[in-house]
Amino acid sequence: MAGAVSALFLLDIKGRVLVWRDFRGDVTAVQAERFFTKLLDKEVFKHYFEELEEESLRDNFVVVYELLDEMMDFGYPQYTEAKILSEFIKTDAYKMEVSQRPPMAVTNAVSWRSEGIRYKKNEVFLDVVESVNILVNSNGQIVRSDVVGALKMRTYLSLPELNVILFIGFYHNDHKTSYGRGIELGMPECKLGLNDKVLLEAQGRATKGKAIDLDDIKFHQCVRLARFENDRTISFIPPDGSFDLMTYRLNTQVKPLIWVEAQVEKHSRSRIELTIKARSQFKERSTATNVEIEVPVPSDATNPNIRTSMGSAAYAPERDAMVWKVKSFPGGKEYMCRAEFSLPSISAEEAVPEKKAPIRVKFEIPYFTVSGIQVRYLKIIEKSGYQALPWVRYITMAERKTPMKL
């Protein structure tokens, strides 16, 4: 069995399988990337497709499989010379002619950006928005927590009417030929740097605060993925208006930023008393806004009597809940809410089992992120030289659920 090949996988730059052939059934997909790296160095596919890229493989599935079948027989290498294979395989292959591609602006390859955009003031706004979702059981233990983040952008950058494309032509006397090159002018480009742990460690640099491990990243189509894979630089020509530049998720243990405790007392089946305590567990320099704490109450409760040390609370019978709202909740503070409801004096003949409903907590914290992500720089490059202003802000939104017995 010496020299036999068990399987062959072709992957894109993200490691996803584009084409594969399993010859012997004894190789796992974990080994595919290593095999693919070596395969890229061979000349057969380049001979057929000119440029060996994801696009050329996707456009030539049939030819690729024909080549694999001729090159391998039950895992054993057969013909590997491109000229010999050409005698057996007559299927026409689509060849990428990269050198003859016209400039990007001529083909409107930047399809997400229209022409003729004009603004009196050129600005870019970047919001780093994180959503924290936490599930806490009745014993106060965190069952699940995760952080979902997004880099949301609003761009208002002009595209000058003049000098959008500069075509430079040359004439070669010896070969009596002319050629040219298109240069994009006026197409605004942005570069964004984060406190990315992989990048900072590669550069041997330190950063104020902590560096973060970006995980489960998804980019907008305008981002140059090859550039990010190479040096972790987020470089892009932004669309006009609002769009999500990047989303990410961090599966990490996060403590509740606002901790809520609830005590329930029932008095001789005639009334129920609730004592709600809310405590902010973040630093004093930050402030939560639009805090909303929804506490379940029995569906047959009446005559609410509610008192709060901060904010306002009201009975919401359509939701079988009491809603406590605090517009501004600084870090390191604790507030209380007490409520009393009447219950029917006549109970049902059959006992109704105790209902478990969650306490829900929602709020926002401006200028704060749970993950610690930081924008190190946001540069706007525009070759005609106009001035543009970048703005960055951070927002954390949270939702917490804790079951409560009634």
Automatic annotation (TrEMBL):
Entry keyword set: Membrane, Protein transport, Transport
Sequence ranges assigned to domain MHD in this UniProt record: 121-405
Compartments it resides in: Endomembrane system
Family: Belongs to the adaptor complexes medium subunit family.
GO biological process per UniProt: intracellular protein transport; vesicle-mediated transport
GO cellular-component term (any): endomembrane system
Taxonomic lineage: Eukaryota, Viridiplantae, Streptophyta, Embryophyta, Tracheophyta
Organism annotation: Triticum turgidum subsp. durum (Durum wheat)
Name this polypeptide is given: MHD domain-containing protein
InterPro entries xrefs: Adaptor_comp_med_subunit, AP2_Mu_C_sf, Clathrin_mu, Clathrin_mu_CS, Longin-like_dom_sf, MHD
Superkingdom of the source species: Eukaryota
